[in-house]
Amino acid sequence: MNRTKRGTRPGRPRKPARSDxxxxxVCHALKALGGQAPLKAIYKxxxxxxxxxxxxxxxxxxxxxxxIQADDRYVRVAPGVWAFANxxxxxxxxxxxxxxxxxxxxxxxxxx
Length: 112
Prior knowledge:
By secondary structure, the protein is α+β, with helices and mostly antiparallel strands. The chain has one domain (18-103): Arc Repressor Mutant, subunit A. It has 4 helices and 3 strands. The chain has a 3-stranded antiparallel β-sheet with strand order 1-3-2. The model has no long low-confidence stretch (mean pLDDT 82).
């Protein structure tokens, strides 16, 4: 009889550990860089992480960008430079986000 741990199914990948989630990986990298850094420096820190190794994660840079842009913990302070939002006042964060939205508006989904 093939027994597995309760709650797991054979053949299914396990859920990543808390420290293996992209949001946590990016957060630790930005902390290591002092809370504000260019995207290239963030990449340089993250490329040493085991999650970026192997054939499964060939697009990890895109995932890092997606994580930073989607998470409210981060704010773009200059082109290519990101920081923790809590380093700035709420008014400054709102202004920085407005400026970014003005420069890079969200695309609307058009139906034909």
